[in-house]
Structures are given as C-alpha cells and as structure tokens.
Design goal:
GO terms for molecular function: ADP-glucose pyrophosphohydrolase activity; ADP-ribose pyrophosphohydrolase activity. Keywords: Hydrolase. The chain has 306 residues and is of the alpha+beta class. It folds into two domains: 35-141, no CATH class; 144-298, Nucleoside Triphosphate Pyrophosphohydrolase (Alpha-Beta Complex), CATH 3.90.79.10. The chain has six helices and 15 strands. It has helices spanning 69-77, 79-89, 189-200, 247-253, 274-277, 284-298, and strands at 35-38, 46-50, 59-63, 100-113, 116-128, 134-135, 138-141, 144-154, 157-167, 172-176, 179-181, 211-212, 235-244, 257-258, 267-273. The longest helix has 15 residues, at 284-298. The chain is elongated and about 65 Å long.
C-alpha cells in the first residue's frame, strides 16, 4: 500500500493550553474519588489525602525544604501526580490487593514549563504489610510521550529518519526518533505525534497513514512502553509511518537544522538506511520501535505488504 509524503511545511509553533483540575478530588476509572484535607494555614506545606483503596490509612504529602508553597500546591494539583496515584489503584496497581500501603509522599522538586508542571520529583514511602519492609520509591514524573518511526522508500531502498539532539542528562548527542511529551490536558497521542514530526523534521504526515504500534501489544501491558520504570513514570506510545518519496527528498532532509528555538531545541535531521538503523543508535525508543515493527511484519499485522 503506497502512502504519499506531503510537501515540506514551514516550521510551526503550537500554543499549549493547561487547565488545572481541582486539588480536592481525583477520579478513578469507576469514578471513586480521593478524599483530601488541607493542613491549617500555619502549616501550608503539608497535605493529607485518603485513598479509596486504603480507607483509614491517610497519606501525608509533605514539601521538602526549598519547595515553595505555590510549587507544592501545583504539584498536588498536577495531572502527573494524580495519574501516578490513579495508576497505584488500578487492578494491576501496587495498592490494589491491599498487601502494600502508601503512607507518605515527599515532594522534592518541581520544574515548571510555563504555567504547567513539566517535571516532578518525589519520594513515596510504600510498605509491604506482611514484612514491614519499605519498597524503593523515588519517582521522576514526566508523564506520557509519543515517538514516530518514519520509514521512507526511495529507489529500492528504505530509509529511517532520525533527529540528533543535545541530551544533557547523558552528556551526549543522541540519534533518536522524533518524539515529544503529550499535552496533559488533551490526551491526543496521534495528533501530538504528527505535530512533533512537523516541528522536529519539517514534514507533515497524515494521521490516517499512521500505524499505532502499541495496538499490537496485549491489553495487560496498558499498550504503552516504559523505558525506565525503576525511576521514571514516562510511558511512550510508538507510531509507524511508511511512505514513498523521490531521492531528492532524502537529500533535502539529510542534515536539515530544525527545532523550536524558543523551547531550547537544537535539532539536526539524519536519514540512515533502515537495515543499519539498529546498529546506529542507543535510543531505546528506536530499538523498541524496530522490534515491534519487525514482529508485526512477521505476523502479517501491518496494513501493507513489506
């Protein structure tokens, strides 16, 4: 099945809206709420909540030194924190069967992206009731993200499109898939994927041509990929695009400078032969996408013949 790659588009800026839900309630999938109680005004940096799965065992939320009152309240209000609490209480969550108990959360750091929280760091005191042992619970929360494996067929060869970005946490330049964090108030995974490709690569992909690689996973996985679940809550949705282009497009993409400078993005586009892709990157997103694509191809699950 042949898909057409649309013409290059000018770099676009997209405004992100954030609407903060109430800090008083958090709804599970079956609409049960968390009961919460703010501390007196004399102690503004503590907060108490009661989770439906452990009634009678209130959880104290505490701000570490250096976390301001506004940051603390923003953290409690954030979708990052509320989603973490929700995950803990799902059928496969840590607190679901009553064997463990969440007693305290220490909010250690808050990084704002404009008016919304981008990164949140906290420590959770979770205990195994049978042994009394504490479970390691340091959390770096950044929420859901998306990435796209773009394959372009040209003159009998298939190419993959990558970005080279400065990644300060690892101190290196990394070749990786075009990717981005999800707007927390929208939940538009495929729309975010298309937008990130436009911003980081400079091309527009039709949503209807995108293949959701997560759809091939068993439902028990939540149909998300967790790159580093031992320390980070990040969950990634991976998409696939495959199209036919003239060799001129491959040449134009190679080395192209992209990225939203106002967001601190310094991106260089790389186009590499797909057969060599698995050897050319240390990016977990890319390697996972290759594995999912190859397995889906082997099982005949893709909407076209490879």
């Amino acid at each position: 099945m042949t898909y057409l790659l649309q013409a290059f588009l000018p770099l676009l800026s997209f405004s992100k809206k954030f609407s903060s839900p109430s800090s008083r309630t958090l709804h599970r999938s079956h609409s049960r709420a968390i009961c919460s109680k703010m501390s007196p005004e004399s102690s503004p940096l503590t907060h108490t909540i009661t989770l439906p799965v452990q009634l009678g065992e209130p959880v104290q939320i505490v701000a570490a030194p250096g976390v301001s009152d506004s940051e603390f309240r923003s953290a409690i209000d954030s979708s990052l924190f509320k989603q973490w609490l929700k995950n803990m209480q799902t059928e496969t969550g840590i607190l679901a069967n009553g064997a463990m108990s969440l007693r305290r959360v220490l909010i250690q750091g808050v990084d704002m992206f404009g008016k919304r929280i981008g990164f949140l760091k906290f420590k959770a005191d979770i205990f195994d009731k049978e042994t009394g042992q504490k479970i390691p619970g340091i959390v770096f929360a950044r929420g859901p993200a998306v990435a796209v494996l773009i394959l372009l067929d040209s003159e009998g060869e298939t190419y993959a499109v990558l970005t080279e970005q400065v990644r300060v946490p690892v101190g290196r330049l990394i070749l990786e898939l075009p990717a981005g964090m999800l707007d927390e108030d929208k939940g538009d995974f495929i729309g975010t994927a298309v937008r990130e490709v436009e911003e980081e690569i400079g091309i527009h992909l039709n949503q209807e041509d995108m293949v959701d690689l997560m759809a091939f996973l068993d439902a028990s996985t939540g149909r998300r990929v967790f790159p580093s679940p031992g320390g980070c809550d990040e969950e990634i949705s991976l998409f696939l695009y495959r199209g036919h282009v003239d060799k001129e497009i491959i040449t134009q993409l190679q080395g192209k400078q992209m990225g939203l400078r106002e967001h601190g993005e310094l991106i260089k586009v790389h186009v590499v032969p797909y057969v060599k892709l698995w050897q050319m990157t240390a990016d977990a997103k890319t390697l996972i996408a290759i594995a999912l694509y190859e397995m889906a191809k082997r099982e005949g699950l893709l909407p076209w013949k490879s």
